[in-house]
Amino acid sequence: MNVQYETLIYRLESLGLNFMAAGLESFLSETHRQDQTLVNVIADLIEIEYIPRKERSTKSRLKLSGMPVLKRLEDFDRLWLKGGITERQFEELSSLSFLERKENIIFMGPSGLGKTHLMLALGHKACLDGFTSYYTTCIDLIENLVKARENKRLKRKLMWLRKPHLLLVDEVGYETLSPEQANLFFQVVNTRYENGSMIITTNKAFGRWSEIMSDEAVASATLDRLLHHAHILSLKGDSYRMKDRLKAGILDFN
User: What's the rounded Cα separation, in Å, for the pair 15 and 18?
Assistant: First the structure.
């Protein structure tokens, strides 16, 4: 029995089933398993490996996502908004079905309405559900692409940006792009077109994107691909960031 047990442990470890190997002795000592069917016993044994692996994978995805803070959908106060996202739309977003369809999400509106909160919350949920996410601000994205091109690694960088299931690009339009930078942004959108979802936050209406990108033709081409399979949510209301301060009576506009 000892030889069989040691052989079993060795083979589990050889297969990379380390959690199962570590928990096998305790698992076998549980007497109630005598009353279980073989299928249930095997299922319980597999859970010993599956659960920690899944948790470890989730932690890795979150760590590699680049998301600066943890935000959750359940913490977003939709009642504070004065329009732009219905309950049905919120539930649809929460289902992450747009990821399966490789559709984009555009959160529009002035600062302080929770666009970044929603973006990060969806990125977090995607990681929990087994998808990969990557977050960047628009200006950081452009700076990294410029460096990649200078080092003759632009193609490699674009292929890397194509890999995540969900690419989160924050603060598009907060700074005007030069024609060169606008072309790089277009290449990102073009690379991901029908290959993976993007979530973008912007404070500029699409009619002003030619100003943002300093080139009407590039802006038009970018929007053509970005909006082809997209859900556009234009948030309305007072500053979301002021909500708690107003409730606490810290701000007085009288």
Answer: 8
Check: CB of residue 45 under 8 Å from CB of residue 195: no
Cβ-based neighbours of 123, under 8 Å, separated by 6 or more: 65, 67, 133, 135, 166, 168, 199
Per-residue H/E/C for 26-81: HHHCCHHHHHCCHHHHHHHHHHHHHHHHHHHHHHHHHHHCCCCCCCCHHHCCHHHE
Residue 153 contacts by C-beta under 8 Å, 6 or more apart in sequence? none
Architecture of the structural domain at 73-245: 3-Layer(aba) Sandwich (3.40)
Sheet holding 166-172, edge to edge: 133-137, 166-172, 197-202, 104-108, 230-234
pLDDT in tens, 93-131: 999 999 999 999 999 999 889 999 999 999 999 999 999
Backbone angles phi, psi at 94, to 5 degrees: -60, -30
Q: Where in the chain is the domain with CATH 3.40.50.300?
A: 73-245
Grade residue 14 by pLDDT with cuts at 50, 70 and 90.
confident
How confident is the model at residue 253, as a pLDDT? 41
Segment holding 117, helix H or strand E: helix 115-128
C-alpha 65/C-alpha 166 separation (Å) is: 10
3-state secondary structure of 17: coil
